[in-house]
Amino acid sequence: xxxxxxxxxxxxxxxxxxxxxxxxxxxxxxxxxxxxxxxxxxxxxxxxxxxxxxxxxxxxxxxxxxxxxxxxxxxxxxxxxxxxxxxxxxxxxxxxxxxxxxxxxxxxxxxxxxxxxxxxxxxxxxxxxxxxxxxxxxxxxxxxxxxxxxxxxxxxxxxxxxxxxx
Length: 166
Hints:
This protein is 69% helix and 0% strand. It is an all-alpha fold. The chain folds into two domains: 122 residues, no CATH class; 42 residues, no CATH class. α3 packs antiparallel against α6 and α8 packs antiparallel against α9. The radius of gyration is 22 Å and the shape is flat.
């Protein structure tokens, strides 16, 4: 579809086999889900911004804090718990990426689009190295656990910020 669009607007020279070209395959895989990756995140952020008390916004306005300054000094700190949730889920999803790679490229061309989940699958079911695949799974779990604990420890939520301010 993208190639046809490029040809239509006179840029047919840029048309390529996006998934079969080693230099564009990984970017093409990342873009496959792009139009659909936002609904959940938007709802989480919307809920966070909607939960900011009106009194906080009124107080900020009375103090002369408006626009971009209010957004960065008031709104963002108030939705840090939502940002933390989305960050954790994005990290987990990125490390566990498997479906799109398996369906579209199976790790190819060459091993350019190989991700840890695909490598675990190949070792278990193509190379019959179950122990190695299990080790990859355990390492993935430990990596995700470490990143999640780091995120929970070092990114403070709005409740923690309000507790320290009092």
